[in-house]
Design goal:
This protein is of the alpha/beta class. The protein has 11 helices and 17 strands. 35% of the residues lie in helices and 21% in strands. Bound molecules: zinc ion (ZN). Zinc ion binds next to loops.
């Protein structure tokens, strides 16, 4: 698929560079990366050879980064049935491939897959990297780690491990299988029947053992954590992101700021269930309802304290389609996050969390993963939901 295409020059465009907004810019980029950015009336010579794209009235921004997806799940109403139907890694990989493309088409150029059957998402990540199939860059956690009988234990997207030694071994095994991120399920969960959503699962020793192994290999660690105690334990053990983070106390928020722990509120997952309560299993609706108010309060606590957000949709959960990252940005602002922070969450913060140095900002030398939207998403984040053009590594999608 790699070919030497003409570079692209976007003229007279507003740029959200991953951190701030700049008006009336020109940006030159190609398959080798971003080559130039500056005031649009003074383009570089090389821009003359480029394919020109009019940027007036539009905003160019880094490709979106969704740090929490499940590529093997489509977002069916019946999550358990969809999980049961994932009977072979081959079928799981095909579903992951289709959902990877859905993300890319929506302007999501990097995703972190936080749990699926065996190596299926890892294989799709490899196929995309090799140029065999189109898709965003994929970091994949392989199987999530959960305690015996913990959240997700009954489906193929996780493995049960108990004790620090077993956690350590499981992290090593997932890395050996090709995992490029690690997921620890630190509390109960909404989509597993018969267990509460908020109890604490792994002990401090178990969390620390897993985190140490992943960090030795420079991989990000995500902790699924809903209840206040489990969130605090995961933060103190040193995870890089708290997923869901529904019951955040002010004290733990301060701890997250000190340690640089990112918060991934996954509002799309809560909304997907509550907005379709008549079609989702009762146990899931009840648990989602019980944490809705806490979730909103936690987001406000995080904003007030200065906890840095990332954008994670949990795509693949009921009525939560792939490519939902823009919707998550909109939800974050609706719940009280300043738009600029929500945009940083989905770009520069996501790249920092995932330890990717070549994406997440628009700077010379960075990879040209870019999205062009109508309007100004800082003024109105819903601009992200409208018409868009996407480039992946300089190639139009
Ligand atoms: Zn998830």
């Amino acid at each position: 698929m790699r070919r030497m295409a003409k570079p692209t020059y976007v003229t007279n465009v507003t740029v959200f560079d991953g951190n701030r907004l700049r008006k009336r810019q020109g940006v030159l980029f190609g398959t080798e990366g971003i080559e130039w950015i500056g005031p649009h009336p003074r383009p570089p010579k090389a821009a003359r050879e480029a394919r020109e794209v009019e940027g007036d009235g539009k905003t160019l921004m880094p490709g979106l980064i969704d740090v929490h997806v499940h590529l093997q799940f489509d977002g069916d109403a019946d999550f358990e049935k969809e999980a049961r139907d994932l009977t072979t890694p081959g079928f799981a990989a095909l579903k992951a491939m289709v959902n990877a493309k859905r993300n890319l088409d929506a302007g999501v150029t990097t995703v972190r897959d936080l749990g699926g059957m065996g190596g299926a998402s890892i294989d799709v990540a490899r196929a995309v990297a090799a140029g065999l199939v189109p898709g965003p860059r994929i970091l994949a956690a392989g199987r999530a780690l959960t305690v015996s009988g913990g959240h997700g234990h009954s489906i193929a997207f996780s493995r049960e491990v108990d004790g620090p030694d077993a956690v350590r071994a499981a992290v090593r095994e997932e890395i050996r299988a090709g995992a490029t991120a690690i997921k620890l399920i630190a509390t109960g969960g909404v989509l597993t029947p018969g267990i509460p959503a908020t109890f604490s699962a792994f002990t401090a020793d178990e969390l620390e053992a897993g985190i140490r192994e992943a960090h030795e290999r420079n991989l990000s660690v995500a902790a699924h954590a809903i209840g206040a105690n489990g969130i605090r334990a995961a933060v103190l053990a040193g995870v890089d992101s708290i997923e869901h983070c529904n019951q955040l106390t002010a004290a733990t928020a301060r701890e997250m700021v000190t340690r640089g722990t990112f918060r991934s509120p996954t509002i799309c997952a809560v909304r997907g269930i509550l907005d379709h309560a008549d079609r989702v299993a009762d146990y899931a609706v009840e648990k989602a309802r019980s944490i809705e108010a806490d979730s909103k309060k936690s987001l406000r606590t995080a904003v007030r304290s200065g906890v840095r957000p990332v954008c994670g949709t949990d795509a693949g959960t009921p009525f939560n389609a792939h490519g939902n990252a823009a919707q998550e940005v909109v939800y974050m602002t609706e719940w009280g996050m300043p738009p600029l922070d929500a945009l940083r969450a989905a770009t520069s913060n996501g790249a920092e969390l995932l330890r990717l140095e070549d994406v997440g900002t628009i700077e010379v030398g960075k990879r040209a993963d870019l999205v062009l939207v109508d309007g100004d998403p800082v003024e109105d984040p819903r601009a992200l939901l409208g018409r868009r053009r996407v480039w992946r590594a300089g190639d139009p999608v």
